[in-house]
Specification:
The chain is of the alpha/beta class. The protein is built from 10 helices and 12 strands. The protein has 2 domains: 3-150, Response regulator (Rossmann fold, 3-Layer(aba) Sandwich), CATH 3.40.50; 164-317, 2-Layer Sandwich (Alpha-Beta Plaits), CATH 3.30.70.270.
Length: 320
């Protein structure tokens, strides 16, 4: 960043020293130099427009330089910005330096040496604040990219199954098939009832392994064309399918799925671990109306909660 683009705020109640600093900086090509006579005015200016470098006098009325520095650090944290703080003082003993650096000051210039030391210190300050703020901006952009990927991605990172977005997409597809071709939509909702117990007993890597093994076995127990998804928020699995007849969406039709997950433990890095699976079956047929996809999924999850309580397979037909 060119020196002319750096924002500098000089905070000093002594107009004479402020004028010297301003003249020194502008003479070196720093054009964006603002002045404040006390800490409150400085904070007001920085809330309106942050500074890259703040030159702060230690001894000021109402709010001294160390208190102001602490407030600047709070503003930085809230705005994802870094302000390089140069403290001015007539004291340069070890105790004063320690106190200043502990308060968050980045550099220290004795007032008696402003003309000799300020510009060399500023060259270092420019490099540090430019690099640090560039890093913060890059991190912010990266966080935005990650958020966008999470928003648009349709895969669950643990299992490789579709996530909530894909669940809705495939529910829409099956409901359209029911409207156009007849048959029924069948939505299986499965959850690991003892997931919280597993999370208390094992490291997350082991819990993720159990979730992956559950997903793998679920794939084996269902038809290749059935769509299986997983909600990352609560480890709920969904299987979305179109079947020829409403009678195909019954507890007996999917008992082998229920038993195949509940009666066989998984071999993990921590030994054999059993899961307690709840299963609800929610069906939709044109004779009883076609729901909105979100309503359909919401009903399925409500019925899964009932299945947890009873320990049985819950079966429901939309609208009946």
């Amino acid at each position: 960043m060119p020196d002319s683009e750096l924002s500098i705020l000089v905070v000093d109640d002594a107009k004479f020293s402020s004028a010297i600093i301003n003249k020194t900086l502008t003479g070196e090509g720093f054009t964006d130099v603002r002045l404040a006579e006390h800490g409150k005015e400085a904070l007001t200016q920085m809330r309106s427009r942050p500074a890259h470098i703040a030159v702060v006098d230690w001894m000021m009325p109402e709010m001294d330089g160390l208190t102001l520095t602490r407030e600047i650090r709070k503003l930085d944290a809230a705005s994802n910005h870094f302000t390089y703080v140069v403290l001015l003082s007539a004291h340069d003993d070890a105790g004063a330096l320690t106190e200043a650096f502990e308060a968050g000051v980045d550099d220290f210039v004795n007032k008696s040496a402003i003309r000799a030391e300020l510009i060399p210190r500023f060259r270092a300050a420019v490099r540090i604040t430019t690099g640090y703020n560039a890093m913060l901006n890059n991190n912010k952009a990266l966080a935005g990219d990650v958020a966008e990927l999470r928003h648009t991605n349709t895969l669950d990172p643990v299992t490789g199954l579709g996530n909530d977005r894909m669940t809705i997409q495939h529910i829409v597809d099956t409901l359209r098939q029911v409207e156009r071709r007849g048959g029924a939509s069948c939505l299986l909702t499965l959850g690991i009832k003892n997931l919280s117990d597993l999370e208390r007993a094992y490291e997350q890597v082991v819990v993720d392994e159990v979730v992956r093994l559950t997903a793998d076995r679920l794939r084996q127990l269902l038809r290749p064309l059935d769509t299986i998804t997983r909600s990352s928020d609560d480890s709920t699995f969904c299987a979305i399918m179109h079947v020829p007849k409403l009678e195909d969406c019954s507890a007996s039709s999917f008992r082998r799925v229920f038993e195949g997950l509940n009666l066989r433990s998984f071999k993990t890095a921590e030994g054999y671990i059993a899961v307690d699976i709840g299963l609800s079956i929610t069906a939709c047929h044109s004779d009883f109306g076609i729901p909105e996809p979100e309503q359909y999924l919401e009903l399925a999850r409500e019925k899964l909660a009932e299945a947890y309580e009873t320990g049985l397979i819950s079966t429901t037909i939309w609208g009946k």
